[in-house]
Design goal:
The protein is extended, with a radius of gyration of 31 Å. The protein is built from 18 helices and no strands. Helix content is about 70%, strand content about 0%. The N terminus is likely disordered. Helix 13 packs across helix 17. It is mostly helical and about 475 residues long.
């Protein structure tokens, strides 16, 4: 979570450029230089961070608050360990004095009291009263001074309260606390469990609020981006270029189309599909979608693998024909094998030649066994070698079968975006049945991202697309 938010902020910060000429033909002359104070930049960065966090909570259903831990072996971690050890050693030393000193212990009880009170809802006045009464620091201080303090009794009350507030997943932790008899280890463990409970409460709050966040998040992101745009007037340059390039592609340079009323929407939907073919190393991502760049990249990589899976399976089933058609479980076994062997296809260490050779070999072994099991003759060696060659050839982006499958995937996704308002999924094109379930999941995820993005930035998109189309008309005249 932390990394994704930091990445979003960093990407937007990199877009902060003043007096930068526009990279495309639509943008008017550069705005005059505008000097921005450090305070303004810091405020902008803070707004970007908050916007990225709110966006992540809404768009990522698996979003969870996680505790921060310094890296293993880092200076920060060593300093933290030394300070904690010194504190607990000091507490132990005070408790071992004769008579015991409770100043550190009472400070800890005060912190625990505030944490327990923070777990309460506004209407839980009875529990609030119990905590304040049992953990009255002035009374505890008097008992300590008079040698009447029962620290174990306080600890048991604290554990009981924690058991009342904690999630069921913490029951074992509470049980373990009740088994600890030494005061110092007990207080250490109490704080460790309280830290877990804080995270639990935060994640419960996030999950409870998510259904109510949509409208607020749309307005919040609009407001924050507008503020950002006022400080950085050229903060839409890459968005304009993205839509301009898509318009050129869709219209082929022409401005007149049979369905011109739908042209802005058509351009916009095609623009989102282009993000699933993006070169993230060389092309600047549109500013309005920076917070979702990681999600688009993830979908892009999933689609690339699915296109290869569907291409290989189409080749295999066309080659083997009726001999394997309809055999239960075979399609899933072949599909699983391909996925496993191509799992690392987007890593630097991936060797395409070796991987596709392994796919061809494994599938042919599987086919051999399957044909034999069902009473068919195995492929002659020349036919098997031809099949292996066809499978290996799929590694090329220019492979005709791969291009057909990829085109059908794009058609399906475009149809999904266009039919989203009608709440009906488009028919699955031929050859995509083996990956239909995964493809629909990606389409739903894409449609959700696109819908939210349009809600937030529709005003900006409408103006940019109108400028593009109006400029095309004026050039045509």
């Amino acid at each position: 979570m932390k990394n994704s938010v930091e990445t979003s902020e960093e990407m937007i910060r990199k877009r902060i450029r003043r007096n930068t000429p526009s990279p495309h033909r639509l943008t008017p002359q550069s705005s005059p230089p505008r000097f921005v104070s450090v305070e303004e930049l810091m405020e902008t960065a803070k707004g970007v961070t908050n916007m990225a966090l709110a966006h992540e909570i809404l768009m990522n259903s698996a979003f969870q608050v996680k505790p921060y831990e310094p890296e293993e072996g880092s200076l920060e971690k060593r300093v933290k360990e030394i300070m904690h050890k010194a504190f607990w050693d000091c507490l132990e030393s005070q408790l071992n004095e004769d008579p015991p000193s409770y100043s550190h212990a009472i400070t800890l009880v005060g912190e625990i009291k505030e944490t327990l009170l923070s777990f309460l809802l506004p209407g839980q006045s009875r529990l609030r009263g119990q905590i304040k009464e049992a953990l009255d620091l002035s009374l505890i201080q008097q008992e300590a001074e008079n040698g009447a303090l029962d620290i174990s009794k306080l600890a048991q009350f604290i554990i009981d309260m924690m058991g009342t507030f904690c999630a069921p997943c913490r029951d074992e932790d509470i049980k373990h606390l009740r088994e600890i008899t030494d005061i110092v280890p007990l207080f250490k463990s109490i704080f460790a469990v309280l830290d877990k409970m804080k995270i639990d409460m935060a994640n419960f709050a996030v999950s409870s609020l998510r259904p109510h966040l949509l409208q607020q998040s749309v307005e919040y992101e609009q407001k924050k981006f507008q503020e950002f745009l006022q400080k950085q007037p050229n903060a839409l340059d890459f968005t304009k270029k993205w839509l301009q390039d898509t318009s050129d592609y869709v219209t082929g340079g022409a401005t007149c189309t049979p369905n011109s009323a739908q042209l802005p929407l058509t351009i916009h939907n095609h623009a989102y599909l282009r993000l699933l073919k993006w070169d993230h190393d060389t092309e600047a991502f549109p500013e309005t979608l920076l917070m979702d760049q990681g999600r688009f990249l993830e979908m892009q990589q999933e689609l690339e693998q699915l296109a290869l899976v569907a291409s290989v399976l189409l080749i295999v089933y066309n080659s083997a024909g009726e001999a394997i058609s309809g055999l239960p479980g075979l399609m899933e076994r072949l599909k699983k094998t391909i996925k496993i062997l191509l799992a690392e296809m987007h890593t630097r260490s991936f060797k395409a030649d070796e991987a596709f050779a392994a796919v061809a070999e494994k599938l042919c072994v599987e086919l051999r066994g399957c044909l034999s099991q069902h009473g068919f003759s195995p492929f002659p060696s020349d036919r098997e070698n031809t099949l292996k060659g066809q499978i290996v050839a799929v590694k090329s982006a220019d492979n005709p079968i791969r291009k057909v499958i990829d085109s059908r995937i794009q058609t399906y996704l475009l149809g999904f975006l266009e039919s989203s308002a009608l709440r009906c999924a488009p028919a699955l094109p031929g050859g995509l049945t083996p990956i239909g379930k995964e493809l629909e999941e990606i389409a739903v995820k894409l449609e959700r991202l696109v819908t939210f993005n349009k809600l937030v930035y529709s005003l900006f998109y409408h103006k940019i697309l109108q400028d593009i189309l109006n400029q095309g008309k004026s050039l045509d005249v």
